[in-house]
Amino acid sequence: MDLEKLEKSIGYEFKNKELLKRAITHVSFANENNVKSYEKLEFLGDSILEFISSKYLYENFKELSEGELTKVRAQSVCEDSLYAVAKKHKYSDYILVGKSEKANEGNKKMAIMADCIEATIAAIYFDSGLDEAEKFIISNLKETMEYASKHIGMKDYKTVLQEKLQKNGEVQIEYKIIKEEGPDHDKTFTAEVSCNNKILARGEGKSKKMAEMQAAKQALEE
Fold first, then answer.
1. Number of neighbours of residue 117 by Cβ within 10 angstroms
2. Which of 45, 89, 107, 146 is the 20 to 30 A CA-CA neighbour of 160?
3. Are 191 and 212 in contact (CB under 8 A)?
4. Alpha carbon distance 90, 95 (integer Å)
5. What was the pLDDT predicted at 153?
6. Which string of b and e fits 74-88 if b means at least 16 CB within 10 Å?
7. Contact at 8 Å (CB) between 57 and 68?
8. What percent of the chain has pLDDT over 70?
9. pLDDT, tens digit, for every residue of 57-106?
10. Which of 38, 62, 183 is nearest to 121 (CA)?
11. What b/e sequence results for 154-170 when a residue is b if at least 16 CB atoms lie within 10 Å of its CB, and e otherwise?
């Protein structure tokens, strides 16, 4: 497998190519081919990611309280943001999955793609140490963390809107992505929220989730 394009995209060249290969090997492929999967790498990568992101937030957002830092980390270091990183680097072109998983496009599933990013973090750590792993994490999640720091509590807008709209009984709330603009690595999404088929508001964001949150926020403000 030619992994040079992936290495070029993530900005890191492995000394031990097998580490990168393992980081993109799903358990379904591993079982069929008697090789190691990314599961143990992902386990360690998750811990490294939490530590490095916590360290970055602690050092760069001194004005935030412990509770606010926890919220920012939860918003920015999550499956959605890791999936966005994987999409940016086209991980689905490289992820190795077994036959049944391949039939279901497992290489494009959010959870699997996000897991591969955590596994890559651990693979870089084993290949070159913590500093290189930190470079990878910050280069890919810095903007997301900075955005989250300016929108603390944003994750609650959809919940708050739902509670307000359902105060007098059940209603049908629906979110739709109505527009995608920009290149794959820098897309802007526009979401629309409606209640009982009546459009309430629209919002934009760098991910579908952020666009939906902004739409909910806009609906609350209006």
1. 28
2. 146
3. yes
4. 9
5. 61
6. ebbbbebbbbbbbbb
7. no
8. 98
9. 999 999 999 999 998 998 889 888 899 899 999 999 999 999 989 998 98
10. 38
11. bbebbeebeeebeeeee
Q: Which domains does the chain have, with CATH numbers?
A: 4-149 (1.10.1520.10), 155-221 (3.30.160.20)
**Confidence band, pLDDT 50/70/90 cuts, at residue 110:** confident
Instruction: Choose the catalytic residue: 42, 101, 115, 118.
Output: 118
Catalytic site residue 118? yes
- Asked if the model's pLDDT at residue 154 lies above 70, the reply is no
| Residue located via tokens 């088929």 | 197
pTM: 0.72
What is the rounded (10 degree) CA torsion for 28, 34, 37, 40? Answer: 130
What's the CA gap between 73 and 1, in Å, rounded?
35
Note if 156 is an active site residue. Answer: no
Cα 156 to Cα 63, 152, 170, 213: the distances in Å are: 22, 9, 19, 8
Residue 83 DSSP class: H
Query: Rounded to an integer, what distance in angstroms lies between the CA atom of residue 168 and that of residue 92?
Result: 44
List the structure tokens of 172: 């049908």
